[in-house]
From TrEMBL:
Component of a P4-ATPase flippase complex which consists of a catalytic alpha subunit ATP11B and an accessory beta subunit TMEM30A. It is found in: Early endosome; Endoplasmic reticulum; Golgi apparatus, trans-Golgi network; Membrane. This is Phospholipid-transporting ATPase. It comes from the Eukaryota.
Length: 1039
């Protein structure tokens, strides 16, 4: 119990030694000296509160807010001393605010708990007590043997012990880790691969020694020994509250001083209606001064708006539903709507200055298609299943060829042999291939760790060289229908440093061959023969088209050479010390003196409207950074194809640096080039290694270069590096608002680090969606989320906040109802439904987003304007009522003169009407029965609002913003025309007006969406109508 309590409080962290020693099935040594290591449990926690800490933690967070803490102090003062108002006036609103906020935050956290419980409660099977035991994911312990079936998600980090395949291999997708949806092959060690039954696994006695978990997803070092038996708006509000608190303190001190100055005259020291007691006469002057100061502090405390926070919370919570209801953010193919996980950041969507995005699965569909290749210096394209040289058609004499020339066949064989592609186990590998019942061969279904490999092997099969599978230690291919068997001798796995992979095979003739493929920067320098120069030109041409490129080469070994490399490989692979370094040296020794065969160009299909969305973000003044784990060449290609990099942009590179000195020198050169070519737009490419060096010693220089670049691409990034880049911008002196968007678990750290996190509901699991603030189905939806919803939310919340400070300028019921009901509800409704510009205009003109950037509507100037306006209106309220109705000269309906209560109620009535127009029953009946009272109300309200109206008119005509210009254009085009049967332009039928009204109600639905909504326009009187549309919409729609 004590250990559980310590873990809940965070005082008992897991063991953090350099290595882990894991006893499989938790069979610990039997001697008494062994102390088991302590490991974290398997629970996933994305929630903020628990049942035990909700009340204290929530109260602590709420009272960290200036306004709540201030009213708590006022309430305590009212309880301790005699004050002009009842403690209820502060205590009741404070209790209401705290309660509503707690309910709202508790509900949102309950949704997080619900999502966590779905994952933690997922059923899993573990081997215990000689059999399979069904348990929950959260109950898995380090050392358990877990059974995972086909298409199931891994509940924990696992080491492969065995599979149902004879060779102990399995194919897994790491989509939830790095966003890659393709299968990767893993093979169990021979000692455990043979244990394919539960009974045998239960008898396994083994120990795994490995490193502690680290940030690098692609690196794991360990060994197994087998015996023979884991906000901008709020800052503005707090700043304004502090200013008003200073004003409040000044007013209280000034009033206390004026009181004693007033009482300096004998006749006013003790008026008949406020005689002092004996105790008050004899009390200390200092204590009396403090008591009077606190009394004035309580009297004026309503200058701080108690209902501000609760109204803001309600506005955020209720307003967040509009995102989920927006049909324009609905993805019909996957039947997914936009999702809001937290409503606290709605207004931040209108303040984004930097967008950090993942590439694979976020910008792209992660679907590869073969486009072109270069073989022996000649470019080829696939035309109707045939490999055709560029410039020749299928009908031309040279294009309509039968068979493949020697170089083409060798190139395609290299593509079919140098890969990690697997074939669906359900398909047979008979001599004649799989057959349908009608005798027609069915295409093989390939799986691969790289989408490029899969696309290349499929393309090779279409043009005549088919990879038919692996049988034992042999790879089988069919070249133009002729089966061939190559013995697989060694696989030289791909790694990010070499940027290539190779296989060593024995051909049917007994010849030892090395086939290798990789980035051109790693293949071309190692090639000694072949059409190197022509191939380099072709690779550059492929890259300019946005294609992902690979070069292919081979090498022949003599028997002596093969014997030497076999010996070196064995020594490196069995080394216990510096294994990776020794393997890298051997791989470099083998992969040299290559003969270049050619290159390939594969297209990674972009998501729909990615280029338009990125361009819209750029027009809105938002800088886009692409953070990806992909290699340099691939990342640059996709950046060019998606419009992140322009063709005319000067692309700068900070890559492949190994030392601080070279990195610093390159940064200085880049800064100099940017300064010299300041007219040209620049793009920056930086890889993970160089980024680490830049952030270590040269952070300021690196930031200077980045901020002067229009677009930044970071490649070869580990997940934690992505988060570091976001944090770097987030904490820079300018304190920009950042947004991160991704689709996989490798993006979670980046999403959580940014001010606003967006998860893409893609193919790569739900981790990003669960840990994000908002979730959308496609990248293109980001434009409406920011330009429409973000714009509206910011304008609404900015008006609401400024309005609250403006209106805080009598019986305690008036004071309480004034802030809670009379003036809060109208502005709450306004802040939920106001649309100052049509949503279509906002989305089609991204430049309007600049008008609200950098907290433009909650800066000091707008705040000062609203504050001065509030003081001016308060002056007019009081002295206007006094001049018009004072001195008891006015008569009520019953002939009585105005008194203090009636005068005060008049001032209160004028104030409520004025404040509400700006965006006690019996007393009211008496007051409003006087004609002079009505005249005073109208005159004072007009006088107050006159200055505000004149200011708005002058500014709109003399210094209009882009948004105000759009409003004028919109009004001129008739968009703001009241949607009704009686309001339509010349020549427009009433039926067209009904159509326009339905469009406005349904968010400019497409005809298919109108039908989904269950609305039949055929019931209307129109057969066909035409109206002005966007360029990408049809000119007319049949109804």
């Amino acid at each position: 119990m004590l250990r559980w309590v310590r873990q809940q409080l965070g005082f008992d962290p897991p063991h953090q030694s350099d290595t882990r020693t894991i006893y499989i099935a938790n069979r610990f040594p039997q001697h008494g000296h062994y102390v088991p290591q302590k490991f974290a449990d398997n629970r996933i926690i994305s929630s903020k509160y628990t049942v035990w800490n909700f009340v204290p933690k929530n109260l602590f967070e709420q009272f960290r807010r200036v306004a709540n803490f201030y009213f708590l102090i006022i309430f305590l003062v009212q309880l301790m001393i005699d004050t002009p108002t009842s403690p209820i006036t502060s205590g009741l609103p404070l209790f209401f605010v705290i309660t509503v906020t707690a309910i709202k935050q508790g509900y949102e956290d309950w949704l997080r708990h619900k999502a966590d419980n779905e994952v933690n409660g997922a059923p899993v099977y573990v081997v215990r007590s000689g059999g399979l035991v069904k348990t929950r994911s959260k109950n898995i312990r380090v050392g358990d043997i877990v059974r995972v079936a086909k298409d199931e998600t891994f509940p924990v980090d696992l080491v492969l012990l065995s599979s149902d395949r004879a060779d102990g291999s399995c194919h897994v997708t790491t989509a939830s880790l790095d966003g890659e949806t393709n299968l990767k092959t893993h093979v169990a060690v021979p000692e455990t691969a043979v244990l394919q039954s539960v009974a045998n696994l239960d008898k396994l006695v083994a120990v795994i020694e490995c490193q502690q978990p680290e940030a690098d997803l692609y690196r794991f070092v360990g060994r197994i020994t087998v015996s023979q038996q884991a906000e901008e708006i709020v800052r503005s509000m707090n700043s304004f509250l502090i200013i008003y608190l200073i004003i409040l303190l000044f007013e209280a001190i000034l009033s206390t001083i004026l009181k004693y100055a007033w009482q300096a005259e004998e006749k006013w020291d003790e008026p008949w209606y406020n005689e002092k007691t004996e105790h008050e006469r004899n009390s200390s002057k200092i204590l009396r001064f403090i008591s009077d100061f606190l009394a004035f502090l309580v009297l004026y405390n309503f200058i701080i708006p108690i209902s501000l926070y609760v109204t803001v919370e309600m506005q955020k919570f209720l307003g967040s539903f509009f995102i989920g209801w927006d049909l324009d953010l609905y993805h019909e193919e996957t039947n997914q709507r936009a999702q809001v996980n937290t409503s606290d950041l709605n207004e931040e969507l209108g303040q984004v200055e930097y967008v950090f995005t993942d590439k694979t699965g976020t910008l792209t569909e992660n679907e590869m298609q073969f486009r072109e290749c270069s073989i022996n210096g000649i470019k080829y394209q696939e035309v109707n299943g045939k490999l055709t040289p560029e410039g020749f058609s299928e009908d031309s004499p040279d294009g309509n060829r039968h068979g493949l020339v020697k170089e083409e066949e060798l190139f395609l064989k290299a593509v079919c042999l140098c890969h990690t592609v697997q074939i669906n186990a359900d398909q047979t590998d008979g001599a004649d291939g799989p057959w349908h019942a009608n005798g027609i061969t069915s295409p093989l279904e390939y799986y691969a760790s790289s989408p490029d490999e899969k696309a290349l092997v499929e393309a090779a099969s279409r043009v005549g060289v088919v990879f038919t599978g692996i049988s034992g230690d042999s790879m089988e291919v069919k070249s133009l229908g002729k089966p061939e068997r190559y013995k697989l001798l060694h696989v030289l796995e791909f790694d990010p440093n070499r940027r290539r992979m190779s296989v060593i095979v024995e051909s049917p003739s007994g010849e030892k061959l090395l086939f290798t493929k990789g980035a051109e920067s790693s293949i071309l320098p190692r090639s000694k023969s072949g059409e190197i120069d022509k191939t380099r030109i072709h690779v550059d041409e492929f890259a300019l088209k946005g294609l992902r490129t690979l070069c292919v080469a081979y090498r022949r070994f003599t028997p002596e050479e093969y014997q030497e490399i076999g010996k070196r490989l064995h020594e490196a692979r069995t080394a216990l010390q510096q294994r990776e370094e020794r393997l890298a040296d051997v791989f470099n020794f083998i992969e040299r003196d290559l003969e270049l065969l050619g290159a390939t160009g594969v297209e990674d299909k972009l998501q729909e409207k990615v280029q338009e969305t990125i361009e819209a973000l750029r027009l809105a003044g938002i800088k886009v950074w692409v953070l990806t784990g992909d290699k340099h060449e691939t990342a640059v290609s996709v950046s060019l194809s998606c419009g992140h990099f322009h063709r005319t942009m000067n692309i700068l590179e900070l890559v492949q640096h190994k030392s601080d000195s070279t990195c610093a020198e390159q940064l200085r050169q880049l800064a100099k080039r940017i300064k010299e070519d300041h007219v040209i737009q620049h793009g920056l490419v930086v890889d993970g290694t160089s980024l680490s060096l830049a952030l270590r010693e040269h952070e300021k220089l690196f930031m200077e270069v980045c901020k002067n670049c229009s677009a930044v691409l970071c490649c070869r990034m580990a997940p934690l590096q992505k988060a570091k880049v976001v944090r770097l911008l987030k904490t820079s002196p300018e304190k920009p608002i950042t947004l991160a968007i991704g689709d996989g678990a490798n993006d979670v750290s980046m999403i959580q680090e940014a001010h606003v996190g967006i998860g893409i509901m893609g193919k790569e699991g739900r981790q990003a969606v669960r840990n994000s603030d908002y979730a959308i189905a496609r990248f293109k939806f980001l434009s409406k989320l920011l330009f429409v919803h973000g714009h509206f939310y910011y304008i609404r919340i900015a008006t609401l906040v400024q309005y609250f400070f403006y209106k805080t300028l009598y019986d305690s019921v008036y004071l309480t109802l004034y802030n809670i009901c009379f003036t809060s509800l109208p502005v709450l409704i306004y802040s939920l439904f106001e649309q100052h510009v049509h949503p279509h205009v906002l989305q089609s003109k991204p430049v309007l987003y600049r008008d609200i950037s950098k907290n433009a509507h909650l800066g000091f100037k707008p705040f000062l304007y609203w504050t001065i306006l509030g003081f001016f209106h308060a002056f007019v309220f009081f002295y206007g009522s006094y001049l018009l109705m004072g001195e008891d000269t006015s008569l009520l309906g019953n002939g009585q003169m105005f008194g203090n209560w009636t005068f005060g109620t008049l001032v209160f009535t004028v104030m409520v009407i004025t404040v509400t127009m700006k965006d006690m029953y019996f007393v009211f009946v008496q007051l409003l029965s006087s004609g002079s009272a009505w005249f005073a109300i109208i005159l004072i309200v007009v006088a107050c609002l006159f200055i505000d109206v004149v200011k708005k008119v002058l500014y709109r005509h003399l210094q209009p913003t882009s948004t105000e210009k759009a409003q004028l254009t919109e009004a001129g085009s008739g968009i703001n025309c009241l949607d009704s049967m009686c309001c339509f332009s010349d020549g427009e039928t009433a039926c067209t007006s009904v159509r326009r009204m339905l469009e406005r109600l349904m968010g400019r639905c497409s005809p298919s969406r109108v039908n989904r909504c269950g609305i039949s326009l055929n019931s209307l009187c129109c057969r066909r109508f035409s109206y002005k549309l966007e360029p990408d919409e049809p000119a007319a729609i049949d109804v």
